[in-house]
# Entry
Amino acid sequence: MSNPAPRPSPNICVPDPPRRSIGTLARLATLLSAALLVPTGQAKPILIYYHAWYAAPPTSPAFGWHWTLNRFDPNRINALGERDLASWYQPLIGPYDSGDPAVLEYHALLMRLAGADVVVVNWFGPEPVFDYADIDARLQKLIPFLQRAGLKLALCYEDRALQAGPVDPDAQPPPLHDRALRALQYAGNQYFTQDCYLRWQGKPVLLNFGPQTLRHPGDWEKLLQQIHPTPALFTINVPAPGAVGAFAWPPMWLSQAPGTGGVLSAAALHRYLTDFENSARTWPAAISCAFPRFHDIHPKAGVREYWGYLGDRGGATLRETLERALTNKTSMTLIATWNNFKEGTVLEPTREFGFRDLGLLQQLRRQHLQPGFPPTTNELALVLQLYQLRRAAKTHTIPAAALDSVAAALTAFRFDEARQQLRQLSHRTADRPGPPKAPSPAPIQP
# Structure
């Protein structure tokens, strides 16, 4: 399978304006002492960045590019039971398909119980080029699970999708503005009007991972005037003209400076975050970012050049960035990411880290936003049990309604009820009483 996206520019590298503009704005901010608009009457929302681009059997005919990079073979399993994936890390449930309902329920419930409020989906538009239409279709399958879990939705549009050739290779490519307009008008009709869509001051929140393609002055101001309902736009690192603010992202370009050895140090990272926070005082709104690590597999596959390394530091990277994002004066907190396995910025449970990172999110939500937030990692394990029962339901007579009842109990934080139901249902799938076995490296069953 070929690469499902154009070779991207390093969008986590220095944006336009140049990165020194962040420092310039920071100095201006100390003079202006402008306050950020912070949501009133509610805790700062926690957003998690989500990728719906994975394909795997049996939901799809074969493992997709995002698991293989045309270099790895997930069907190959080593002596430790680890699959040959395009990642340094192994998903706890194994490689999955982003259109699998059992996976979507598992993800939505985990994010709910971990303390997230909003899922920001990485989105390329609906065009049937590469796997963009497939991602859009999976997004539509995800939404009911977000609604059931009480989570909100937002989109992050990748305007580098405009670098792809037209759907008809023999046709004259339409102007970039017209192509982007069609995609965002579609988003307005399909997503922005949904009750579960995130809003800022009444406007649907739209992130743009760039701009990378539409970079001329006035491009986004003109686009926004033609989209209904008009979104509140956030661009990466600094606001593009027309944006209400920006969102931070792991500043991996700093790991390319002379003398760094390709490693982003904690000191450099926090200088970037300080500059971002100070600059954000001059904007109507801003989204801080937290992240656990950056450990990129792309260079090993020969897909792109080395973008640097940010260590996990035993969970300290996530703890420091998340605590900072939750306690500063920005409007929202974004965690990057739930499941970008290729870059290693994964919060989703893995064989290497288990529920550690989600447990940290629960702890910091209790500490800084919601002292009575009830779930712990013990309850996260219940979601895993439910997922395993969904997997086993095809070969064991487990009524779907019974599993739906467990999901409803978990969503409502009725954990004793969920435990009791799981114990009863697990008897149907095991030779002895108890919860279902932990995920095995065997192929995912329908």
In short: DSSP finds 13 helices and eleven strands in the chain. The first strand starts at residue 46 and ends at 50.
